[in-house]
Amino acid sequence: MSSRQSNILIFIQIVLTTICLFVAALLIPQSGYSATEILSDSATPTPPPPPPRAEHAPSPRYGYVWAQGHWEWNGRAYHWVSGTWVEQGGAHGVPDEWQQLDARWRYLLRHWERQ
User: Are 58 and 88 contained in the same domain?
Assistant: First the structure.
């Protein structure tokens, strides 16, 4: 095998490894979110979110907490996002919430607080 062929194989291995690491990073479940992440914060007035829907939480799972469903604003209307299990991460979970800021509404994602 020539030096050029060897270099090409090394380059291909590096590219494939990088792609695999990127895909793996996308598949790792997130254990919580920062409270500073905002899903909806537009400069124009937005209507308040509808009342939360009643959801039946499944049976408890060790190491996880149930995150209730919530309304998300897509720029034109609200749509419902069903609840899901979230890894607890050894801290107290602070639930999602909508906050009114003048005529705008913004959504703060769940986050964890150490006790």
Answer: yes
